[in-house]
Amino acid sequence: MKKAISSLLIIFTVMLISACGGKTTTSDGVKLVEKGKFIYATSGEYKPFSVTNDDGTMSGFDVDVAEAVAKELGLEPVQKKFKFAGIVEGVKSGRFDAAVASHTITPDRQKKVDFTTPYYYSGPQIFTRPDSDIKTVDDLKGKEVAVSKGSTYADIAKKYTKNIKQYDSDVVALEALSKGKHDAVITDYLTGKEAIGSGLDLKGQQLIERSEQAIAVAKDNDKLKEKINKALEKLRKDGTLKKISEKYFKDDITTKPE
After folding, report:
1. Are 224 and 232 in contact (CB under 8 A)?
2. Residue 250 CB: number of other CB atoms within 10 A?
3. Residues 6 or more apart whose Cβ sits within 8 Å of residue 188
4. 82 with 97: CB under 8 angstroms?
5. Which positions ≥6 away from 203 have C-beta within 8 Å?
6. What distance separates the 2 farthest-apart alpha carbons in the chain?
7. 134-162 pLDDT per residue, tens
8. Torsion over CA: 213, 215, 218, 224 (sign)
Protein backbone atom coordinates (compact mmCIF):
# COMPACT_ATOMS: atom_id res chain seq x y z
CA MET A 1 0.00 0.00 0.00
CA LYS A 2 2.76 2.43 0.99
CA LYS A 3 4.62 1.53 -2.18
CA ALA A 4 1.55 2.24 -4.29
CA ILE A 5 1.00 5.61 -2.59
CA SER A 6 4.65 6.49 -3.07
CA SER A 7 4.44 5.65 -6.77
CA LEU A 8 1.34 7.80 -7.17
CA LEU A 9 3.07 10.71 -5.43
CA ILE A 10 6.02 10.44 -7.81
CA ILE A 11 3.72 10.41 -10.84
CA PHE A 12 1.76 13.38 -9.49
CA THR A 13 4.96 15.33 -8.82
CA VAL A 14 6.24 14.73 -12.35
CA MET A 15 2.91 15.82 -13.80
CA LEU A 16 2.92 18.95 -11.63
CA ILE A 17 6.45 19.90 -12.68
CA SER A 18 5.57 19.38 -16.34
CA ALA A 19 2.46 21.53 -16.02
CA CYS A 20 4.32 24.34 -14.23
CA GLY A 21 7.28 24.78 -16.51
CA GLY A 22 7.53 22.11 -19.15
CA LYS A 23 9.48 22.83 -22.30
CA THR A 24 9.09 21.34 -25.75
CA THR A 25 11.68 21.37 -28.52
CA THR A 26 10.71 21.37 -32.19
CA SER A 27 12.43 19.25 -34.82
CA ASP A 28 14.56 22.25 -35.83
CA GLY A 29 15.72 22.98 -32.27
CA VAL A 30 13.34 25.76 -31.21
CA LYS A 31 12.50 25.58 -27.49
CA LEU A 32 8.92 26.51 -26.59
CA VAL A 33 7.02 26.68 -23.33
CA GLU A 34 4.11 24.87 -25.01
CA LYS A 35 4.01 22.94 -28.26
CA GLY A 36 2.64 24.93 -31.19
CA LYS A 37 2.39 28.19 -29.23
CA PHE A 38 4.35 31.44 -29.10
CA ILE A 39 3.88 32.68 -25.54
CA TYR A 40 4.99 36.30 -25.30
CA ALA A 41 4.88 38.81 -22.46
CA THR A 42 4.08 42.50 -22.52
CA SER A 43 2.89 44.90 -19.85
CA GLY A 44 -0.45 46.20 -21.09
CA GLU A 45 0.42 49.51 -19.44
CA TYR A 46 2.40 51.27 -22.13
CA LYS A 47 0.05 52.96 -24.56
CA PRO A 48 0.19 52.86 -27.58
CA PHE A 49 2.67 49.95 -27.46
CA SER A 50 0.47 47.74 -25.29
CA VAL A 51 -2.77 48.59 -23.53
CA THR A 52 -5.26 46.44 -21.62
CA ASN A 53 -8.74 46.34 -23.10
CA ASP A 54 -12.02 46.11 -21.18
CA ASP A 55 -12.18 42.36 -21.81
CA GLY A 56 -8.70 41.81 -20.33
CA THR A 57 -6.95 41.23 -23.65
CA MET A 58 -4.14 43.52 -24.80
CA SER A 59 -3.69 45.48 -28.00
CA GLY A 60 -1.17 47.94 -29.39
CA PHE A 61 1.94 48.20 -31.51
CA ASP A 62 3.95 45.56 -29.60
CA VAL A 63 1.00 43.17 -29.63
CA ASP A 64 0.51 43.52 -33.40
CA VAL A 65 4.22 42.90 -33.97
CA ALA A 66 4.11 39.80 -31.74
CA GLU A 67 1.07 38.46 -33.59
CA ALA A 68 2.74 39.03 -36.96
CA VAL A 69 5.93 37.27 -35.79
CA ALA A 70 3.92 34.32 -34.45
CA LYS A 71 2.17 33.98 -37.81
CA GLU A 72 5.53 33.86 -39.61
CA LEU A 73 6.73 31.23 -37.13
CA GLY A 74 3.62 29.16 -37.76
CA LEU A 75 2.72 29.27 -34.08
CA GLU A 76 -0.38 30.29 -32.13
CA PRO A 77 0.23 33.63 -30.38
CA VAL A 78 -0.55 33.64 -26.66
CA GLN A 79 -0.27 36.97 -24.85
CA LYS A 80 0.66 37.21 -21.19
CA LYS A 81 0.25 40.42 -19.21
CA PHE A 82 3.11 40.97 -16.77
CA LYS A 83 4.58 43.90 -14.85
CA PHE A 84 7.31 45.44 -16.98
CA ALA A 85 9.95 45.28 -14.24
CA GLY A 86 9.68 41.48 -14.07
CA ILE A 87 9.37 40.54 -17.74
CA VAL A 88 13.08 40.00 -18.44
CA GLU A 89 13.38 37.64 -15.47
CA GLY A 90 10.29 35.82 -16.74
CA VAL A 91 11.94 35.21 -20.10
CA LYS A 92 15.20 34.18 -18.44
CA SER A 93 13.44 31.62 -16.22
CA GLY A 94 11.46 30.14 -19.09
CA ARG A 95 8.05 31.45 -18.09
CA PHE A 96 7.63 33.06 -21.53
CA ASP A 97 9.06 32.24 -24.95
CA ALA A 98 9.79 35.89 -25.56
CA ALA A 99 9.16 39.45 -24.46
CA VAL A 100 7.66 41.78 -27.04
CA ALA A 101 7.46 44.72 -24.68
CA SER A 102 9.54 47.62 -26.02
CA HIS A 103 12.71 46.58 -24.22
CA THR A 104 15.68 48.78 -25.06
CA ILE A 105 18.83 46.77 -25.72
CA THR A 106 21.23 47.45 -22.82
CA PRO A 107 24.40 45.72 -21.56
CA ASP A 108 22.70 44.91 -18.25
CA ARG A 109 19.74 43.19 -19.91
CA GLN A 110 22.08 41.37 -22.30
CA LYS A 111 23.62 39.62 -19.29
CA LYS A 112 20.24 37.98 -18.62
CA VAL A 113 18.65 37.46 -22.04
CA ASP A 114 19.45 37.63 -25.74
CA PHE A 115 17.91 40.17 -28.09
CA THR A 116 16.79 39.90 -31.69
CA THR A 117 17.48 42.56 -34.27
CA PRO A 118 15.62 45.79 -33.36
CA TYR A 119 12.01 46.02 -34.48
CA TYR A 120 11.79 49.75 -33.83
CA TYR A 121 13.93 52.75 -32.93
CA SER A 122 13.12 55.45 -30.44
CA GLY A 123 14.67 57.43 -27.61
CA PRO A 124 14.09 58.92 -24.15
CA GLN A 125 12.77 62.46 -23.89
CA ILE A 126 12.09 64.91 -21.08
CA PHE A 127 8.42 65.84 -20.60
CA THR A 128 7.20 68.69 -18.41
CA ARG A 129 4.16 70.85 -17.85
CA PRO A 130 3.98 73.70 -20.40
CA ASP A 131 4.95 76.39 -17.85
CA SER A 132 8.11 74.57 -16.71
CA ASP A 133 11.59 76.12 -16.85
CA ILE A 134 13.11 72.68 -17.52
CA LYS A 135 14.35 72.42 -21.10
CA THR A 136 17.43 70.17 -21.04
CA VAL A 137 19.10 67.55 -18.84
CA ASP A 138 21.16 70.31 -17.24
CA ASP A 139 17.95 71.72 -15.77
CA LEU A 140 17.10 68.45 -13.99
CA LYS A 141 19.62 68.85 -11.16
CA GLY A 142 17.77 68.54 -7.85
CA LYS A 143 14.42 68.21 -9.61
CA GLU A 144 11.89 65.44 -8.95
CA VAL A 145 11.74 63.18 -12.00
CA ALA A 146 9.21 60.37 -12.44
CA VAL A 147 9.94 57.20 -14.45
CA SER A 148 8.57 53.68 -14.87
CA LYS A 149 9.95 50.84 -12.73
CA GLY A 150 12.48 48.57 -14.40
CA SER A 151 12.93 50.89 -17.38
CA THR A 152 16.16 52.33 -18.74
CA TYR A 153 14.74 55.77 -18.00
CA ALA A 154 15.42 55.31 -14.29
CA ASP A 155 19.13 54.83 -15.03
CA ILE A 156 19.13 57.89 -17.29
CA ALA A 157 17.40 60.03 -14.67
CA LYS A 158 19.99 59.03 -12.05
CA LYS A 159 22.66 60.76 -14.11
CA TYR A 160 21.01 64.11 -13.53
CA THR A 161 19.13 63.96 -10.21
CA LYS A 162 18.86 61.91 -7.04
CA ASN A 163 15.19 62.77 -6.61
CA ILE A 164 13.45 60.01 -8.56
CA LYS A 165 9.91 58.66 -8.23
CA GLN A 166 8.95 55.35 -9.84
CA TYR A 167 5.60 54.20 -11.21
CA ASP A 168 4.38 50.89 -12.60
CA SER A 169 3.95 52.48 -16.02
CA ASP A 170 5.05 55.50 -18.03
CA VAL A 171 1.46 56.51 -18.71
CA VAL A 172 0.65 56.76 -14.98
CA ALA A 173 3.80 58.84 -14.46
CA LEU A 174 2.77 61.22 -17.24
CA GLU A 175 -0.75 61.51 -15.84
CA ALA A 176 0.68 62.36 -12.42
CA LEU A 177 2.91 65.01 -14.00
CA SER A 178 -0.07 66.61 -15.77
CA LYS A 179 -1.91 66.81 -12.44
CA GLY A 180 0.90 68.83 -10.82
CA LYS A 181 3.05 66.08 -9.32
CA HIS A 182 6.82 65.97 -9.90
CA ASP A 183 8.87 68.32 -12.07
CA ALA A 184 9.39 66.11 -15.11
CA VAL A 185 9.04 62.64 -16.59
CA ILE A 186 11.62 60.84 -18.70
CA THR A 187 10.07 58.32 -21.07
CA ASP A 188 10.01 57.24 -24.70
CA TYR A 189 9.28 60.21 -26.94
CA LEU A 190 6.54 58.25 -28.74
CA THR A 191 4.77 57.49 -25.46
CA GLY A 192 4.92 61.15 -24.48
CA LYS A 193 3.70 62.21 -27.90
CA GLU A 194 0.74 59.83 -27.59
CA ALA A 195 -0.09 61.14 -24.10
CA ILE A 196 -0.11 64.74 -25.36
CA GLY A 197 -2.25 63.69 -28.33
CA SER A 198 -4.75 62.08 -25.94
CA GLY A 199 -5.24 65.37 -24.09
CA LEU A 200 -2.60 65.57 -21.33
CA ASP A 201 -1.35 69.13 -20.94
CA LEU A 202 2.36 68.40 -21.27
CA LYS A 203 5.29 69.52 -23.39
CA GLY A 204 8.18 67.57 -24.86
CA GLN A 205 11.62 69.01 -24.12
CA GLN A 206 15.10 67.64 -24.94
CA LEU A 207 15.39 64.31 -26.76
CA ILE A 208 18.20 62.77 -24.71
CA GLU A 209 19.44 59.96 -26.96
CA ARG A 210 18.44 57.31 -29.49
CA SER A 211 17.65 53.71 -28.56
CA GLU A 212 16.98 50.35 -30.19
CA GLN A 213 14.09 48.16 -29.04
CA ALA A 214 14.08 44.42 -29.64
CA ILE A 215 12.42 41.13 -28.71
CA ALA A 216 14.01 39.31 -25.76
CA VAL A 217 14.49 35.52 -25.70
CA ALA A 218 16.27 33.15 -23.31
CA LYS A 219 20.01 32.75 -23.77
CA ASP A 220 19.73 29.01 -24.43
CA ASN A 221 17.23 29.51 -27.26
CA ASP A 222 19.41 30.48 -30.22
CA LYS A 223 17.16 28.74 -32.74
CA LEU A 224 14.12 30.74 -31.65
CA LYS A 225 16.09 33.98 -31.87
CA GLU A 226 17.25 33.00 -35.36
CA LYS A 227 13.67 32.25 -36.45
CA ILE A 228 12.36 35.54 -35.03
CA ASN A 229 15.12 37.48 -36.79
CA LYS A 230 14.14 35.88 -40.10
CA ALA A 231 10.49 36.70 -39.41
CA LEU A 232 11.33 40.35 -38.63
CA GLU A 233 13.42 40.61 -41.78
CA LYS A 234 10.52 39.34 -43.90
CA LEU A 235 8.01 41.62 -42.13
CA ARG A 236 10.31 44.58 -42.73
CA LYS A 237 10.83 43.76 -46.41
CA ASP A 238 7.17 43.13 -47.20
CA GLY A 239 6.09 46.36 -45.47
CA THR A 240 4.17 44.75 -42.59
CA LEU A 241 6.23 46.44 -39.85
CA LYS A 242 5.84 49.81 -41.55
CA LYS A 243 2.08 49.29 -41.85
CA ILE A 244 1.76 48.40 -38.16
CA SER A 245 3.86 51.42 -37.19
CA GLU A 246 1.81 53.85 -39.29
CA LYS A 247 -1.38 52.43 -37.78
CA TYR A 248 -0.32 53.61 -34.32
CA PHE A 249 2.07 56.51 -34.96
CA LYS A 250 1.28 57.77 -38.48
CA ASP A 251 5.02 57.36 -39.02
CA ASP A 252 7.50 54.54 -39.63
CA ILE A 253 9.51 53.94 -36.46
CA THR A 254 10.75 50.54 -37.66
CA THR A 255 13.44 51.91 -39.97
CA LYS A 256 16.81 52.79 -38.44
CA PRO A 257 17.33 56.59 -38.42
CA GLU A 258 20.13 57.93 -40.63
Report:
1. no
2. 8
3. 102, 122, 123, 124, 125, 153, 170
4. no
5. 127, 128, 129, 130, 132, 196
6. 79
7. 999 999 999 999 999 988 999 999 999 99
8. negative
